[in-house]
Amino acid sequence: MKASIINIGDELLIGQVVNTNATYMSRALTMSGIAVVEVCTIGDSSEAIEASVHRCLEQSDLVLMTGGLGPTKDDITKETLCRMFGSELYENAEALANIERIFAQRGFPMTETNRRQAWVPRCCEMINNDLGTAPCMWFNATTPTHPNIQTSKSPKALVSLPGVPFEMEYLIDKKILPLVRERFQLGSIVCKNLLVQGIGESFLSDRLEAVEASLPPHIKLAYLPQAGMIKLRITATSDTASDVLQNEVKIVSEKIRSAAGEFIVGEDHECLAEVVASLMREKRLTLSAAESCTGGQIAAQLTVLAGASEYFKGGIVSYCNEVKADIVGVEQSTLDRHSAVSEATVREMAEGARYRMKSDYAVATTGVAGPTGGSDLNPVGTVWMAVATPEQTVTKKMRYNGRRQQVIDRAVNEVFAMLIREVSGQ
């Protein structure tokens, strides 16, 4: 089964709002065994909506679209779809009751403008949006009552959803995907991630050349470079049961491990922070951090994950030397003799954080993220990092190219990889 995604909004086109909806919808569809063949972003115009809907329905069984369902004049999705499907708008009693309930809960009077959100095309199936005032609409795109939509005789559906991310996510998970599974015959898609760190993409590709050459057409291997690491994604698709695909993906992953296993630091996760979290919980270990040049990004990536309090004790952003000395515990003589950006300093930062926060492990960073502040000894992009363990403290010096945020992101992933290797005994 194939699907297309249409995200509507001028704010998306001009970069005012990041289109997180596309990412969420693509992932949800893929994990449900639906192949996403196109994602397009368009402006708030009837012409763009019509052209995109026609094109997407020609190539896909399911089209999901977001945006343009609000109460203001630039929200034109409903009217456009009504015209395309040769229908008329009417006030849906269930949608109106939902809008009245939401306004009552908020303690605000409902205006006539908001009441208009209860008007939907008569030809659609209205699906209540429990979290917002814009209803979701399901159109069966091949019924005789839709003369303006020319598609094949195969069942096809167009679903119009609100663009507010948390409303869309709720509707996709709780209402739309269950209906899709009920009304369509779905195939199988099996995905597996392998997180690789410490080797460049071209060198990794050379190692995996024989593996890639042996892949059947229904199994793809994608290289997804991130800051200082590579995510390898194995994707297998079939119309048959997923247990066969699961076994095939397992065989491919074993071949990859045989060719590049020393560089693989995680699997079945989206990022290295998730690998760290999983390891720490599994082994019942605790962690703390002392960060200088990464400015709290290590702590931020860990604490954004649910359950971080189980293993993460806390972090100190020791950006100036006084904090490194007074709070983290770096000796003033170390700072005077070696400078803040040095192996000696980062070692004492990690050991000080581990001691003062009474954690099993601690990580530390210090460096010059740029774009200014470099020297002959420590050019811009120089980062020292350390991991303090119950047995030892390991350090590493890296020199990164790129802009400030790239330096920070690469340093964070490098530290995570160091920690993973120490905890797992790699």
Which features characterize this protein?
globular, 6-stranded mixed β-sheet, 24% strand, Maf protein, Molybdenum Cofactor Biosythetic Enzyme, Chain A, alpha/beta, single chain, 426 residues, 5-stranded mixed β-sheet, Alpha-Beta Plaits, 16 helices
Plain-language structure description:
With 426 residues, this protein is of the alpha/beta class. It folds into three domains: 2-183, 3-Layer(aba) Sandwich (Molybdenum Cofactor Biosythetic Enzyme, Chain A); 188-267, 2-Layer Sandwich (Alpha-Beta Plaits); 272-424, Maf protein, CATH 3.90.950. 41% of the residues lie in helices and 24% in strands. The chain contains 16 helices and 17 strands. The longest helix has 21 residues, at 404-424. The mean pLDDT is 93.
Short structural summary:
With 426 residues, the protein is an alpha/beta fold. It has 16 helices and 17 strands. It has 3 domains: 2-183, MoaB/Mog-like domain (Molybdenum Cofactor Biosythetic Enzyme, Chain A, 3-Layer(aba) Sandwich); 188-267, Alpha-Beta Plaits (2-Layer Sandwich); 272-424, Maf protein (Alpha-Beta Complex), CATH 3.90.950.20.
Average pLDDT rating: 93
**Stretches where pLDDT falls below 50 for ≥5 residues?**
none
Strand order of the largest sheet: 2-1-3-8-7-6
Please identify, by name, the CATH architecture of the largest domain.
3-Layer(aba) Sandwich
What's the CATH class label of the largest domain?
Answer: Alpha Beta
Separate helix tally: 16
The CATH H-level homologous superfamily of the largest domain = MoaB/Mog-like domain
Q: Globular, elongated, flat, extended or rod-shaped: what is the shape?
A: globular
